[in-house]
Amino acid sequence: MKHYTSNFLFCLAFSLTITVFSFDIKAESILIKNVTILDGINNEPFVGNVLIDGDRIKRVSSSNLQGDFVIDASGKILTPGIIATDTEIGIVEIGALSVTRDDSGKMYKIGFSIFDAFNPNSTLIPWNRSNGITSTLTLPQNTSSPIGGLGSYFVLDSKLQVTGLRDMVMIGRVGGSSNRSRAEHFAQIEDLLILAKSLTKSDISSDLELSDLIDDWSVSDAMNLHPRDLRALYELVNNNLPLIMKSNRASDLLKLIELKNKYNLNMIIMGAQEAGLVAEEIAKSQIPLIINPINNIPGSFDELASNINMAQRLEEAGVKLMFNAPRDHNYHLIRQGAGVAVANGMSYAGAIKALTSTPADTFGISGKGTIEPGKIADLIIWDADPLEPSSMPDYVFINGENIDLTTRSSRLRDRYTKKLNEPVTYRN
Amino acid sequence: MTNSKKISFVLFVCFFSTLLRSEREPFESTYIALPAEKILIQNANVYDGDGNEFSNTDILVQDGKIVAIGTDLPATDDFKIIDASNKWVTPGIIDIHSHMGVYPAPGVSTSSDGNEATSPVTADVWAEHSIWVQDPQYALALTGGVTSFHILPGSANLIGGRGVTVKNLQRNTINSMKFPDAPHSLKMACGENPKRVYGNRGQAPSTRMGNAAGYRKSWIQAESYLRKLVEYEEKSDEAKELEYAPRRDLEMETLAGVLKGEILVHNHCYRAEEMATMIDIAKEFNYKITAFHHGVEAYKIADLLAENGICAALWADWWGFKHEAYDMVQANIAIVDQARNGTGCAIVHSDDAIGIQHLNQEASKALSAGLRAGFDISKARAMKWITSNPAKAAGIYDRTGSLKVGKNADVVVWSKNPFSVYALAEKVIIDGAIAYDRQENILPASDFDIGIISPNRNRIDE
Questions:
Q1: Nearest residue in B to A100, CA atom
Q2: Phi, psi of A245 (to 5 degrees)
Q3: Which domains does chain A have, with CATH numbers?
Q4: Which of B321, B373, B452 is opposite residue A96, by nearest beta carbon?
């Protein structure tokens, strides 16, 4: 845990602006009674009671507890709120409408940040939240640099005062492309890392200093980098900034393991469609993976070994797993992916962890991802098994607050199924 | 006309139309099923695809057909027994919207053959002529219980060309995969895609009104072409000898096929008002729309669809990738199904090589959303959304899409109730032969799949 704590502290330090989790104290405590608890830690589900006080989980117990507001959740299932690790929530409203997209930059390559674009009123937030996602790692599009672009963490509480962690991951990508060899990607990454290693604290405190350095180094000069880009590189190699590399081919994954070890990077690999071929090596490297367990399509020549048993194989080898779902807008479909992973051999507890505690641990999101006293009360009461896509939350709590599950979609549904004798536009 | 004259005339017409037919129907199916097996499935829980659920039921398969359904069916020793106690049996799953083969995997430019985006009306192109038979995705769909699917051209064009229905058995020619005697279809597309593709090039259509004008102009041409054909056909033999038959026109042959009711219209259309406009255009030119595809707003006009006997082929939850896909309601499929006292025709489609492997899960999501919206829909009825309803929309319901004596034995044995995410297709039977068996490791591999990573293995075994 030490590693993650320091990582979190780094995030605090790195982020010039940071909005910490809301600490509003609620006057009333909430007791969730007789619920089957999947705590994100233990393997065995157990029936118990959970007391929420303010924004925290106060007690988890099999004995009776008292609360001001009581929810009898017999037959229901309680999990930590799901943390989605690969989304565009808050920065893309409609995929094909570029004016509603804030996921790519033009001027900055490595230091491009999406944090200031986040829209707490996006319709994607109530929708994904009503399906069990309580917070998200929102990532930009890849830039023209093989490493670069900064993602941020957001709590899906819809508060205009954004709750989250700024610029807490960097992304990157290596693999087949239509315009140049992957060998050049790797070479460029190494050149950037060597440059990053050479930067000193005093360098990064001065824009003028950095501009001179950019001219001096061939890689930064050729890429037309800016001081902002170099500062992000500095954070990457000096402050353990998580680096999410998108890559699929087995040989590329091994090369990334080499890079991680050589430059002591805090690396996560995303996609990793051929990870099954190098499962032992990945396990040994302790690189966590973000995979889409439902994707068995050999979608490119980098993904020929795609296989529906990937999650099972990687889990068996001891690889830490998280899930993503590339379909537009429905990031909650990581639940369905997790269900498919279990149907194809992954452990149920492992799949629950992949949605909750593993992302919290990996990205140093303190106080989240498990159901334990003292943790932040991001909780879901499910009407049935959360890995069945037919199941839905009955209740969603974020920071201890019972969130209204109405969505634009549920409003539209009601409009066309209720009060049908009234003209449509005068219905609710 | 005397009787003998009548008879000779009828004979002549038959002979002539046979000639015409062989001339007009090239690329006929040469499909041959796998060697038929004798199979007895015992003690199964069954969703029959027609809305019924049975428990403890046997299904007898012979010569490629379902020959009996009942309890304690007798069978001789030469029948292969499948014990389906605690398992579930359904008809083979059918996807009415697939681009496998025309957008195969790997997704590379050299085999991206689904959109002839060079002109807004390309009724002359046939999706089947783009199909890559070695697409590794067919076998993956088979592991999800899919026994037939309908391959369409893409949606770049107002009128994108003919679609084709195939059996999910990989073969080394296209014709040998084609579902025998399945009707041809025509892909049409509303909305953003055609107007974006052509509008960006500064040509028509660049607006939705441009789209509507484009369809109507094409149908006016088709009407005139068909009139000429009919006029020629009605002429006496002597008159016919004095002139040439109207010159064939590939584009017009397809459109005239629609007007004659021989080719089924499958119309990509998201918005409610655009679907309503398309219904008006169909009435103007007296053709039928078999199904709207994608229809994210179908729930807004569910009654209109039911009244006009039009199916809606829909996703359970896709939305937001385009403006016209913004108003998603998860109960869409259920609302369409329940329209006009349950006379609506709802289909769950995939349009996706991953989704096609899990259509049962997509149906499960749609069903649960329907129940939450207050509808009373059984699982047996929801099973129609991925079996008999798509079979009807593809024009193959007389032969597949439900478990009925005399129909093709396209059958799936599931490990659990198929509305659960944990259910796996264990055995998939196509025309009475086991095409996939999870336990016995029977799974086809395309040429693409073999030796492509390790020379001595198949891709799926890596």
A1: B323
A2: -95, 125
A3: 2-413 (3.20.20.140)
A4: B321
